[in-house]
Write a structure and sequence with these properties.
Blueprint: H1 2-22, H2 27-41, H3 44-50, H4 59-70, E1 75-77, H5 79-99, H6 105-119, H7 124-141, H8 146-159, H9 168-172, E2 188-189, E3 199-203, E4 209-214, E5 223-224, H10 261-272, H11 295-306, H12 310-314, E6 322-324, H13 340-345, H14 353-367, H15 371-378, H16 383-390
Parallel strand pairs: 1-6, 2-5
Antiparallel strand pairs: 3-4
Length: 392
């Protein structure tokens, strides 16, 4: 969960930064929006809870967390803008996950996301919060084995399964097909401990290499054998992963990306050393494998911890809210703007797969006469889940 929320949160900041600039929102307001969201996302309590062991949440549950994060500032988005923002976040991080030739590169991607998100805010206090998340990420993931990273990547791939949303930037750069599939080119290091494909070794009776031959493999072109040692101490070959794809100078993946993750982490660690709340008060993981709380409990807790920034509370009367339609030129919607008022004029049927699943499950439980028992056991703690299901 932490790697999913942190990376998708950074992708959200990238998209918001690009759209706010494209719509010529005043610098003071756009900066306030980004700082409020980053501040809320990286507050001590929320991050400390996020980095505790959790089961992977569903896509619907994760969307609820980002709904609250996006509206934790003075910004107010209509439903169409929020839908498209979340789609871009998902596809952006999905591309990064699939582009990692070695699963432990996910840690480099996360560090890049954190470092570049920090560069988009001006507040020194918010920057320190992000530095603490960098330290927390290193403490939790820095010593993980390649096998654990592989399992983590599989969980993330399962989360993004069947997510094939077409993104104009991806289509223009040839990394996505018209059917929504992504074209992945594995350039850079091989998987940790692996060799570059295209080599045949012949061994003698003593298990010594007697002869070696090589042959070309198109998919292995540009691959380099991964060096030994922790992933944070490697230079980056896939330099574009984790950086802002929406900036003009980052389309080629080379603009200003020569610094290694080791340098980025060292800078953040040095800044965080002066803070008494280093690592957000959370020690290194103690391999907690038990899950006493349910996924519903965890979701409700995280959603409550997101809360609202002081700026968001100031605009609860809607008199100071910054209302933005992030994607006014959406060609998929008739007319201009795509606001909620326009959406109401067109009959639309929304199909929520999660609600369908819940209905089917309830029917099965009724057949087994377990419905009443389930209701008594759950009590009133599923308020946020019920809210999500009611929107289906």
């Amino acid at each position: 969960m932490p790697m999913l929320i942190v990376n998708m949160g950074a992708e959200m900041i990238y998209v918001l930064d690009q759209r706010l600039k494209a719509q010529n929102i005043p610098r003071d307001k756009s900066s306030k929006v980004l700082e409020d969201i980053v501040k809320t996302m990286h507050n001590d309590t929320f991050m400390s809870e996020l980095f505790k062991p959790h089961r992977m949440y569903s896509n619907v549950s994760t969307r609820q967390i980002f709904d609250r994060l996006a509206h934790s500032s003075i910004m107010r988005l209509n439903s169409n803008s929020m839908d498209k923002l979340y789609d871009l976040m998902r596809m952006g991080f999905k591309y990064q996950v699939l582009s990692c030739a070695s699963a432990d590169e996910l840690l480099q991607v996360t560090m890049n996301h954190l470092a570049n998100m920090k560069n988009l805010v001006d507040s020194a206090a918010v920057k320190r919060q992000v530095d603490e998340t960098v330290q927390l990420t290193s403490d939790n993931f820095g010593s993980m084995s390649p096998a654990d990273f592989y399992m983590l990547k599989q969980y993330l791939c399962r989360f993004f399964q069947d997510t094939r949303i077409k993104v104009s930037l991806f289509l223009q750069n040839g990394i996505q097909g018209m059917d929504g599939t992504l074209a992945i080119h594995y350039e850079g290091f091989t998987a940790t401990g692996g060799k570059v494909p295209g080599r045949i070794r012949y061994f003698d009776a003593s298990n010594r290499v007697e002869e070696e031959k090589t042959f070309a493999i198109a998919s292995a072109e540009g691959s380099v054998e991964a060096p030994e040692g922790p992933v944070l101490e490697r230079d980056q070959l896939n330099a574009h992963l984790g950086f802002n794809m929406y900036e003009a100078d980052s389309k080629d993946g080379t603009g200003g990306f020569s610094r290694s993750t080791r340098q980025l982490f060292a800078d953040s660690k040095a800044r965080g050393a002066g803070s008494s709340s280093s690592a957000k008060g959370v020690n290194a993981p103690k391999h907690q494998k038990t899950f006493k709380a349910t996924a519903a409990d965890g979701l409700n807790l995280l959603a409550d911890l997101v809360g609202k920034s002081s700026s968001a509370k100031d605009v609860e009367g809607d008199n100071k809210a910054l209302r933005i339609n992030l994607f006014p030129d959406d060609p998929t919607k008739p007319g201009s703007g795509g606001d909620d008022d326009d959406d109401k004029e067109v009959p639309t049927i929304w199909i929520d797969a999660a609600s369908d699943r819940k209905t089917s499950t309830d029917a099965i439980l009724q057949d087994f006469k377990m419905d009443e028992t389930k209701r008594e056991g759950k009590g009133g703690g599923d308020d946020l889940l019920d809210l999500m299901d009611s929107t289906g």
